[in-house]
Amino acid sequence: SRLGILIVRHLKRLERVILGYLEVSDGPKEEARLAILETLQCTIEHAWPRMPCRLPVLLKALLRLLWDVHTERGPTPEPIRAALLHRATQCLILLDHCSQGHVKVLLQGVQSSCEEKQVRECLRKVQEST
């Protein structure tokens, strides 16, 4: 937050760190994933002019996270799962806003082919966001 728009100087490295943390579960409390989603949200808010060019990579990582959180049946409590899904959805909504609706277009095919209720609900929230 303190860097503001100056975060764009570090986007390439920060993107690698974010992707790395999103890929791996860090235990039942998922503290690292929750924190990195908060970091991603803050980054999108401050560096929004540079996010459309990073959209393919971030969209893929967030969709993978939604799927992983839904399918992983480890010791993670349901409120933590819900928090992960919510934060990932918020990041998708922000990406959609800064890409002028491009995320919604890309997600249309995914939403129609997805049969998992929780994932569909997240995608529906993105589609209905204004």
Automatic annotation (TrEMBL):
Extract the InterPro entries matched here. Tti2
The terms describing its cellular component in GO are: cytosol; nucleus; TTT Hsp90 cochaperone complex
Q: Which residues form the signal peptide?
A: none
Matching PANTHER family, A to Z? Answer: TELO2-INTERACTING PROTEIN 2
Q: What is the similarity comment for this entry?
A: Belongs to the TTI2 family.
UniProt protein name: TTI2 protein
Which organism's genome codes for this protein? Answer: Leucopsar rothschildi (Bali myna)
Its taxonomic path starts at: Eukaryota, Metazoa, Chordata, Craniata, Vertebrata
